[in-house]
Structure formats: C-alpha cells, structure tokens
Design brief:
The protein is of the alpha+beta class. The protein is built from eleven helices and nine strands. Among the domains are: 140 residues, no CATH class; 150 residues, Histidine kinase-like ATPase, C-terminal domain (Heat Shock Protein 90, 2-Layer Sandwich), CATH 3.30.565. Helix content is 60%, strand content 15%. It has a five-stranded mixed beta sheet with strand order 5-6-7-9-8. It has a four-stranded antiparallel beta sheet with strand order 2-1-4-3, with helices on one face. A hairpin with a 5-residue loop joins strand 8 and strand 9. Helix 8 packs parallel to helix 9 and helix 9 packs antiparallel against helix 11.
Amino acid sequence: MASHRKKRNKLLKPSQAIHALHPQVPKNEVIHALRERVKELTALHSTVCVLQDDRLSTREVLDRIVRLIPPAWQYPEITAGRVLLGDCESRTPNFRRTRWLQACDFRISPALSGRIEVYYLKKMPPETEGPFLAEERNLINSLADMLRVYFERKLASKALLDAHSDLERRVKERTAELEKLNAALKTEVRERELRQKEILSYQEKLRGLSAELILTEERERREIATDLHDVIGQTLAMAKMKTGALRGLCAAPEAAGGLKDLASFIDEAILATRSLTFQLASPILYELGLESALERLAEDMRKRYGLLVQFSGDNKNKPLPTETSVMIFKAVRELLMNAVKHAKASEVKVSVRGAAGKIAVTVRDNGRGFNAAAAAGYGTDRRGFGLFSIREKVSHLGGAFRLSTRPGAGTLAVITAPLGKGKPHGKENTHL
C-alpha cells in the first residue's frame, strides 16, 4: 500500500508535466497554452453536438456555431464572428469588420459556398498569423471543414429525399396512367370479343346461307336437267322412233334421204341434251358419288376439248355433305375449264384423297401458268373472279383453297374440306 501511495504522489498535473518536460518555459505560459487548447477542444465538441441535431434549420445551425467562436479564441472579449452560407448569415451581437481578420472559405456545391470570419475589434500583440495563433488557424479550418461535411450530407439527403419523392410521384402518375390504359384495354378487349362473336355468328350464318344457296342452285339445276331429260329428251326419242317408222313407209329415195338427215339431226339434239343435262347437274354425282362424277368429268373433258385428264382416287368411303360435294365438283370443273381456255394445257392430273377427317382434291396442269398475285386483284379477269369464287365458297364450308403457279410453270390447285358424319350413300353421302 505504501509503494502504491508513493506512485500516486508521483503523478503530476498537466501543467506540471509540461513544465517538467520544458523547464525553460515559464509556468504561467504553460497554463495559458493549456487553457487555450481546452477552449479549442470545447468549441470543437460543442460544434459536433450542434451538427448531430438534424432537427435544426440552417439558420439555427449558423446561429449556434457563431456563438461558439468568441469563447474559443484567445481574446473573447474583443472577438466578433460571422458565418455565411449562401444567402444565409449569422453574426455575433458585437460584430463589425476590422482589419484584424482570420477567415476560412468552404464550398458545399458548385452553386453553394460558405465562409467563417473572426475579427479582433482592436489591435493585439502579433502572433503566428497577425494577432491570431497557429492553433486558431487550425480551429477555424476544422470548423469550416465540419460545416462543409455537415451541409454536404444534408444537401445529399435532401436531394435523395427529393428524388425519392419525385420517384413516388412519377410512380403514382404512371400507375394511374397504366390503370387508365388497363381499363381502356379491358374495354377494348371486351368490345373486340363482342365484335369477334358477332363476326363468328355472321360467318356461321354466311356459311349456312352459302350452303343453302349452293343447294338451292343445285336443286334448280337438277330440276332443269330433269326437265331436259324427261321432257325434251323423251320427246326427241319419240321423234326418232317416229322418223324410223316413216322411213319404212316411204319408198321414194328423196323422202328416205330426208328422213335419214332428220334422224341424224335428232341424234345430235339428243347428244346435246344429254351433255347439257350433265353440265347442269351430273346425275352420277348424286347416284354414285364425287369420285365417280369427277372421273366422268375427266372423260367428258377428253371428248369435248381433247384435254388429257388423268384421274386417280383412293376408292375409300368419304362421307361428304351434299353442299361440299357439289362445291368441289363445280370447283374442279372451273379449274379444268381454266386449264383449257387460259392455260392452254395439254394434260391435267386430278386426284382425290381422304385422310384425318378431310378430303383433299388436287388439280395439276402443265399449262403456261400465270401471275397469281396479279390474278388476286379479281378485276374483270374471268379466271381471277372464278378463283376468288372458289376460295370464298370453300372457306364458307370450312375448307381451304391453295393455289401455286407462276408464268411458264403450270398450275397446282389443292382443295381441302372437312368430311361429314354418318354412313355414305354409295361412294359418297350426296343426297339432296
């Protein structure tokens, strides 16, 4: 305990310790220097406490900092101070400008700068910087640097807060705009759905009307063909029989020759009537089906126009609605007539296949072809209008029409249509 007490007694006060290190310095000067350092440290500590309070405005910060200046300098009673930041200024009550000035500038941003000014109100003994101590220069520099850092941080925080507020505002505006656009889009989608339903309904009605039109037209054609066959054909047949009977009764050579010529004319009329009957409504189409009717059409084209038509079918049962059979038959006949009249073809291949619930009819000729894009205009060109009619009729019955051609390369046409349901009649289900 005695030794510990001896050590405690050996501890010296700060002024004693400094005097012991520098015995040549008078003791009163040492005490004065220590007091000045305490004042400086107190000012720095108080400044830190002020700058830690984020609730203070710029004016309040400057007012509190300027009050800390006089007590921290060597001669408080004759010290005046001023702190400036942009347009904001704080002064000590006794402030006035003199020639004894110590100042430090600081810059927060390119557009904002500040300044700390310390004035002695009367002449004092010269020191390191006029009447000011070197430690006071360090102090004013430290205060300026602390204010710079504080206001830089505050400015950055304000900029960040403004950016956040602006972002929130823009997000709200964009959200409101998107909500309006979304509402408008939903309305437009509903309107489009309604229009689409209306279009589908109209298309369905159009398909029904198209099918009904085809059937009605075909009934009328068949009635005309029946009249030709039953009335005119039978009348011509009876006339031929009467002519043959008259030839046996007439002995005069002149009369016999005239009757022979008359019989020849009647034969030609009968053939023409049969041909017209077939063109109006092929009986084979309704009695034996589409493949048989197309095969007979190929033979008729060879006889009438000298066009070599090669027909091939798969001989499978393909139940087709009546309107589909009639439409395909007329479309193939239209394509064959185009091959004869426009393409100047010498050979055409027609094939019929059924697969995957569809029928596919292919017509390929070796004619001179044409510009399909130009024909798609469907102006006054008979071929263009015929192709347009085929495409529309096939489409209305749920099928498709594909055409591939170019000048000098022939033409390929493919017709596809859905098969019907139920038991086919003969080869095809084609009852009217």
